[in-house]
């Protein structure tokens, strides 16, 4: 049986010289309808030592109480010896789009006296999600939509010391930037003046560069010139110095989210006060899908390739056999 | 993407569908359409009419003698079409020679083999190490052309559709419908639908409408389901009808307009294929036909490996030792080859 192609791809010159309109562009509408029906998953992890406002920030980002604020460690409560991994999921809806949002919290990170290897439970959790997905993919009867619990984004909270990154910050980001998308943010930035903020940011960026830490959006994954120019602008502005709040105040006749101090109200969504709005637009309104795609096409594929090369290969799981993964 | 809307409740992830489709527009889409049916039923003309191209301009038509010696071929034509910024890579798979011989026994086999080959290629790519640029050549839809000159389905039609209905989405089409009067078309459609059900042929099913769709959409959907098989006419030529230039066929008794819904179902077919169901056709191919193939493939491979291990156990107990090859990530067909080689070795030894 022969199989040969004729003429390769001959362009038909678009619809302009031909009579009529075929309707190919409607496929976008068809896809859109389908994705609206199935909904989206998004999994975000927050890492940083306690008291940096992680939960508040997440609640502010998604304008709902999706993360429970911890009250810190009570005096007689023992700080857990290892970092805990706590996942909470919520389904939120906006404009007909349903999103299952999962926040993965990491209480205990950086809180011990000796914080050696405190990144290990986090790394393990991330790899476990890749493993779960891989097992589903390799199954004989596969689900139509494999449930995606992989971490799409890791928000790393940098303490606003005003000096530089801490050892722990560097260690964590160095080790994990190759298996997950890391977005560093400067927490509680209302403790710094505008100049202090600028200087701190510069220093942090230099340190990140010196240590070879590729945070998201990674330069090597820019698809084309358009992406590169958009992402360059974002990379220049990172890490975003943010403030979170779930309290509202009246400012100039409008109700805004903010923090009330004796000397004024810090408005969370005011770009002159902090970079929260920039972070939100970047994370949710423009790069949400890209975060998922980089996780799936790059981080997950890297994990998968590594697994395929160990143990003499991956065998599809059959009902009667135990998996030898 | 507006920045601070100041609206309390607006987070902004309602833009997600736009983010998804922005990337798809950049990447472009692909679609593989197969046309099958015996020669002379207007397959090439219909394809040209559907996609407003001329894919077959260099084709040479064979005469009867040349046709006798020809076996069923599988040919592929690819064309890139762009409309309103959306790029489509369209592949048409043709089956010249199908049903043209005197003895057409199992002439659908090469077609079935082709479809399986694309599945196998995809399976191998998907299971491999580098999955960055997998080419999807799987057949998303097969237009099967039924002759208007018979009394409904003929035995070859039934055999073909039954051989392929679990491998590809089959959309039956009543060819050259301008040789029939409207009444004849109706009668034939009813007969063919009955026979499809009678023989247990599983043609492509249009998904049911959501309850929240508007009435007009639901009505269109109903009409679509009742139009199977689509009675089509194709034309490569433009004629003048009522002062307009249309694609059509000029007869002494009148002009048949391809895009006139009163004349034929061409518009319904095109809308279904391109404007409403293209994505669903791809989804069903991916989620049902391909998954079935993959599951069968894995199961038969597992059976072979188990059989080989058991056979090796026997030979080991009789005093010989053949290690099972366990190399790093060998592709599936390499494993099969290794198994076959070992099998031959064992057989040879047993016969010494």
From TrEMBL, chain A:
GO molecular function, one term: GTP binding
Annotated compartments: Cytoplasm
A cellular-component GO term for this protein: cytoplasm
Pfam families named in the record: Septin
Keyword terms: Cytoplasm, GTP-binding, Nucleotide-binding
Annotated Septin-type G domain residues: 38-310
CDD domains in alphabetical order: CDC_Septin
Domain of life: Eukaryota
Keyword Phosphoprotein part of the UniProt annotation: no
Family label: Belongs to the TRAFAC class TrmE-Era-EngA-EngB-Septin-like GTPase superfamily. Septin GTPase family.
The protein's name in its UniProt record: Septin 3
Organism: Oryzias sinensis (Chinese medaka)
UniProtKB/TrEMBL annotation, chain B:
Domain of life: Eukaryota
GO biological process, one term: cell division
Protein localization: Cytoplasm
Gene Ontology MF term list: GTP binding
CDD domains associated with the record: CDC_Septin
Domain Septin-type G: 27-300
Feature type site, description Important for dimerization: 149
Any one cellular-component term (Gene Ontology): cytoplasm
Spans annotated as Disordered: 314-336
Cell division as UniProt keyword: yes
Protein name in UniProt: Septin-type G domain-containing protein
Keywords: Cell cycle, Cell division, Cytoplasm, GTP-binding, Nucleotide-binding
InterPro entries given in the database record: G_SEPTIN_dom, P-loop_NTPase, Septin
Family: Belongs to the TRAFAC class TrmE-Era-EngA-EngB-Septin-like GTPase superfamily. Septin GTPase family.
Main location: cytoplasm
Keyword Nucleotide-binding: yes
């Amino acid at each position: 049986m022969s199989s040969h192609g004729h003429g390769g791809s001959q362009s038909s010159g678009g619809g302009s010289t031909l009579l009529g309109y075929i309707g190919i562009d409607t496929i976008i509408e068809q896809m859109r309808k389908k994705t609206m029906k199935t909904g989206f998953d998004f999994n975000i992890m927050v890492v940083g030592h306690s008291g940096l406002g992680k939960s508040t920030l997440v609640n502010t980002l998604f304008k709902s109480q999706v993360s429970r604020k911890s009250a810190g460690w009570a005096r007689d409560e023992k700080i857990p010896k290892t970092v805990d991994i706590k996942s909470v999921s919520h389904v939120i809806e906006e404009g007909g789009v349903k999103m299952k949002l999962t926040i993965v919290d990491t209480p205990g990170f950086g809180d011990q006296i000796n914080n050696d290897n405190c990144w290990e439970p986090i790394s393990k959790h991330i790899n476990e999600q890749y493993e779960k997905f891989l097992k589903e993919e390799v199954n004989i009867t596969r689900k139509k939509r494999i449930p995606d619990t992989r971490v799409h984004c890791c928000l790393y909270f940098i303490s606003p010391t005003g000096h530089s990154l801490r050892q722990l910050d560097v260690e964590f980001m160095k080790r994990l930037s190759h298996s997950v998308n890391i977005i560093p943010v400067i927490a509680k930035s209302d403790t710094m003046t505008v100049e202090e903020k600028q200087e701190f940011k510069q220093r942090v960026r230099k340190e990140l560069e010196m240590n070879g830490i590729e945070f998201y959006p990674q330069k090597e994954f820019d698809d084309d010139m358009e992406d590169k120019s958009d992402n360059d602008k974002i990379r220049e502005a990172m890490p975003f110095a943010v403030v979170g709040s779930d309290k509202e105040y009246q400012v100039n006749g409008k109700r805004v989210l903010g923090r009330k101090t004796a000397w004024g109200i810090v408005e969370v969504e005011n770009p002159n006060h902090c970079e929260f709005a920039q972070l939100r637009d970047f994370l949710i309104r423009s790069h949400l899908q890209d975060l998922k795609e980089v996780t799936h096409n790059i981080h997950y594929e890297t994990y998968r390739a590594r697994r395929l090369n160990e143990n003499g290969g991956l065998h599809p799981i059959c009902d009667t056999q135990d998996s030898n993964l | 993407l507006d920045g601070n809307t100041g609206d309390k409740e607006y987070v902004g992830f309602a833009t997600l569908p736009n983010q998804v489709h922005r990337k798809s527009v950049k990447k472009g889409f692909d679609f593989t359409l197969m046309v099958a049916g015996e020669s002379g039923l207007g397959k090439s003309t219909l394809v040209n009419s559907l996609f407003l191209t001329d894919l077959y301009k260099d084709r040479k038509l064979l005469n009867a003698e040349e046709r006798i010696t020809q076996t069923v071929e599988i040919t592929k034509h690819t064309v890139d079409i762009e409309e309103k910024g959306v790029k489509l890579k369209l592949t048409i798979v043709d089956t010249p020679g199908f049903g043209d011989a005197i003895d057409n026994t199992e002439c659908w086999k090469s077609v079935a083999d082709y479809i399986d080959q694309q599945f196998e290629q995809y399976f191998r790519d998907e299971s491999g190490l580098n999955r960055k640029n997998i080419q999807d050549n799987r057949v998303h839809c097969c237009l099967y052309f039924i002759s208007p000159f018979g009394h409904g389905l003929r035995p070859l039609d039934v055999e073909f559709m039954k051989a392929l209905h679990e491998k590809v989405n089959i959309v039956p089409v009543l060819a050259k419908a301008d040789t029939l009067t409207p009444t004849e078309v109706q009668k034939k459609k009813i007969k063919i639908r009955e026979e499809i059900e009678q023989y247990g042929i599983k043609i492509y099913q249009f998904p049911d409408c959501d309850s929240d769709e508007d009435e007009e959409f639901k009505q269109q959907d109903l009409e679509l389901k009742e139009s199977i098989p689509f009675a089509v006419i194709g034309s490569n030529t433009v004629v003048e009808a009522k002062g307009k230039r249309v694609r059509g066929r000029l007869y002494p008794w009148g002009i048949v307009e391809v895009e006139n819904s009163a004349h034929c179902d061409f518009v319904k077919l095109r809308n279904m294929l391109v404007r409403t169901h293209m994505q669903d056709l791809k989804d069903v191919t991916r989620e049902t036909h391909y998954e079935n193939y993959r599951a069968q493939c894995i199961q038969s491979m597992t059976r072979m490996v188990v059989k080989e291990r058991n056979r090796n156990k026997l030979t080991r107990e009789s005093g010989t030792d053949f290690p099972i090859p366990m190399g790093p990530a060998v592709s599936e067909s390499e494993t099969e080859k290794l198994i076959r080689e070992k099998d031959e070795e064992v057989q040879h030894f047993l016969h010494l």
